[in-house]
């Protein structure tokens, strides 16, 4: 969100102010401060403060609110978005299925909730498509940010035979680097954390969502709606990250397969299933 709004500040001529590390207990207060300060559009992450954010938004009907949320929009002015990046997660799975020599891949994720499950399931789905016999291992650390715990879970999977791992949380890539296996990053391009380890990964681009919201606010027609569609590949809201050093070493057949499937997704000729059931290990 922050990167997208910084870009909007430069390209769309908006004034941008932000707050970080806002605890649930302070959520409503910070929202009120922005609304009372005259800010027309306020974005944020409401996953840990669903009730607080919606209740506060109702108190300021002239302010446009757009929050990451696992629930739907709320009239009259509370829009939502979510990480609909399951399509590049699926493409990453194709790579994992092709690159695994042990026949066992893994994923270390935050927790078994819909917005996490759909990414892990898409990743495993891609791998299963190219290797029906692939074995899957999954672990949930019960937190959105606990690198030591994520690393520990990743090492346990690697010791059990995983040789390509989906780093849905921070800490996993560090384990992959130490154990010298391949990793798939998540949300952003994290190749710098392990140039010889991170093949690629889903990258979430919030700019299309931000751009659409700002456009509607400027026109005075912002309404409570689900902006999730702007996170999909066809809208430019997500994609597979660059291969970097793997551009030369990734087999041509793998790159060709991924490019073909990517084109089919963008053209609307292939749909990646959304499976929000909690994945389990084989």
How would you characterize this protein structure?
- With 282 residues, the chain is an alpha/beta fold.
- It has 10 helices and 10 strands.
- The protein has a 5-stranded parallel β-sheet, with helices on both faces.
- It is globular, with a radius of gyration of 20 Å.
- The chain starts with a helix and ends in a 15-residue tail after the last helix.
CATH class descriptor name of the largest domain: Alpha Beta
CATH architecture term of the largest domain:
3-Layer(aba) Sandwich
Outline type = globular
Count all strands and give the number. 10
Q: How do the strands line up in the largest sheet? A: 5-4-6-7-8
Compute the number of helices: 10
Biggest sheet details: 5 strands, parallel
Euclidean distance between termini CA atoms:
35 Å
Instruction: Please report which band the strand proportion falls in: under 5%, 5-15%, 15-25%, 25-35%, 35-45% or over 45%.
Output: 5-15%
Number of domains: 2
How much helicity do the residues have?
A: 40-55%
Task: Tell me, rounded to a whole number, the average pLDDT.
Answer: 97
Poorly predicted ranges: none
What Rg do the Cα atoms give?
20 Å
What are the main properties of this structure?
single chain, about 280 residues, alpha/beta, Rossmann fold, 2 domains, five-stranded parallel sheet, three-stranded parallel sheet, 10 strands, about 40% helix, about 15% strand
Quick overview of this protein structure:
The chain has 282 residues and is α/β, with parallel strands linked by helices. The chain has helices at 2-11, 27-36, 50-58, 86-99, 114-130, 147-159, 172-179, 207-218, 246-249, 252-267, and strands at 41-45, 64-68, 78-81, 104-109, 135-140, 164-167, 182-184, 198-200, 202-204, 238-240.
